[in-house]
Amino acid sequence: MLGFLFIYLAGLALIIWLELPALVKQKQWREVAAFSGLVLIGSYLSISMILRLPTPNPNVLIEAIFGPLSKMLEAALSGG
Amino acid sequence: MAEKTRISWVQATLLLINMVTATLILVVPAITTEAARQDAWLSALVATFGGLLLAFIFTKLQQRFPRENLLQFSITILGPVLGKVVGFLYLWYFLHLAAIIIRSFGDFLVISFMPETPVWVFIIIITILAAYAVHNGLEVIARVNILFFALVILSIVIIFFLTAKDMDFTNLTPILAEGWKPVVRGSLFPLAWIGEIVIGLMILSHLANPGEIKRVYLVTTIGVGILLLQVIIGVVATFGPEYTSHLIFPGLTGTRIISIGNFIERLEALAMVMWVGGAFTKICLVYYAGVYGMAEWFRLKDPRPLVGPAGIILVFFALIIYEHFIDFLKFATVPFPMYTLTTFEGGLPLLLLVIAILRKKGGAGNVQKNPGSNDDSSASTNSRLLEPQGNK
Fold it and tell me: Which residue of chain A has the CA closest to B339?
């Protein structure tokens, strides 16, 4: 678990080191804000995954919405 | 965005064909055969026909806005608020699709070739590689794709001819024993994958000559249809419908049985080439669409800073989205075609097109008249002139 955390933090540090200084130097604040927002979302999701906390899985939602619909279609088409 | 990327129609077509085909032919034959049995090849034809309808919608939409991508013209058509909502949904679709395909890439390699390597190794490596490609832009992806496309096509053709002696075409009969219903059901899944050419709406605004939009979509859909038909016929004729429907990767198993004179054997490497080349193109393209779409959504000048953070999110989703590849097959068989076809591949583009026609947004006829010559300025000013100032 600690190993994964270390890999993640190293990767994150690399991305920030590669991208952020140039953006700040050129005063592209919109880019800085979008970049930081995505990094925060990504960090929240990744760290909670690494620490085995509950994380959202979009497929569950999609299956809940579209599963019954597809089953109806399947039933309509499998009659023969 | 002040990006001056230009790609030719051949590059765009090969990108789209490679994106759909390479991943389609490995898993689709099994799922389609399970529904349609020996008529799976008819399902491929039905899916291609449905794909042509989708391609028609995308073509009409792109022709109205030849120099705008999906996120830009949804704002032009629907106004700033609803347009952003549609744009957000598409960003979700791109990221979700990219995560699915990254995970499948890892799962295929783990299941078939390297069962003792954890899947996150492949996921992280391919994401870093794709991030590098996306960072370099569409032209780079389009050029490297030509190499991959050649490898993929070569593999498909070689595999088909080497398995030809094991094929028994009586496996394809009786035709339509149970009517059209199973055929239509079996065509939904390949259709959902052909419908992924909706990604074209994110890259065709970079076409050097906007008059060739129609040609790109037409050649793509028919090319994918032919390759799909050939692979399904090959697999079903070789294994028979019963056995094919129980395989996880029929395309791979097809290469495993190749044995000619006890000499040419064990050609799985060809299937691996096909998968790695195709999946890489697909990951790059969907990742590209996601990142550039996000930059458009946030109205950034330079999308490249978002590549890294988006990669983190992709790795996360790729890791949690399934427990096992079997879960993916279940998801891909039941809700996935319904989910993509009713919303992102069919419903929303159709809605956008109808509203664009009703509100008379974008120019339909002024594209073909002046192809080539300073197309960039004329086409974009045309669509800008036609856009009323105070639209809501």
Answer: A66
Residue B364: pLDDT band (50, 70, 90) is low
Strand partners, B7: B207
Q: Give the A:B interface size as CB pairs under 8 Å.
A: 108
What's the ipTM? 0.87
Q: Angle B285-B290-B295 (CA atoms, 0-180°, nearest 5)?
A: 125
Report chain B residues whose CB lies below 8 A from the CB of A30: 298-301
CB-count burial class (<10 Å; 0-12, 13-18, 19+) for B175: exposed
Q: Is residue B390 part of a domain?
A: no
- Classify residue B368: in a domain, yes or no: no
Say whether B302 and A49 touch across the interface (CB within 8 A): no
Is the residue at B47 inside a domain? yes
pLDDT digits (tens, 9 = 90+) for B183-239: 888 888 888 888 888 998 888 888 888 888 888 999 999 999 998 888 888 888 888
Q: Helices B268-297 and A29-50, interaxial angle, to 10°?
A: 130
Distances (CA, A) of B363 to B15, B143, B318, B381: 26, 31, 40, 10
For an interface test with B, give the residue of A59, A70, A77 to mutate (most B CBs within 10 A): A59
Q: In this predicted model, what pLDDT tens digit does every residue of B232-251 receive, in sequence order?
A: 888 888 888 888 778 878 77
Taking CA–CA distances from B313, the nearest residue in chain A reads A42
The shortest CB-CB distance from B331 to any of A11, A63, A77 is to A63
Residue-number span of the structural domain to which B85 is assigned? 9-338
Give the domain CATH number at B125. Answer: 1.20.1740.10
Q: Do A62 and B339 touch (CB under 8 A)?
A: yes
pLDDT tens digits along B57-87: 998 888 888 888 888 888 888 888 888 998 9
Residue B12, SS3 per DSSP: helix
Instruction: Please indicate, yes or no, whether the overall pTM of this predicted structure exceeds 0.90.
Output: no
Distances (CA, A) of B72 to B196, B206, B243, B330, B383: 19, 13, 47, 35, 11
Contact A39 B309 (CB under 8 A): yes
What pLDDT score was predicted for residue A79? 53
Look at residue B379 and tell me if it is in a domain: no
B314, two tokens: 């992709």
Flag the least confident range among B90-104, B298-312, B369-383.
B369-383
Residues 111-150 of B with CB under 8 A from A: 124
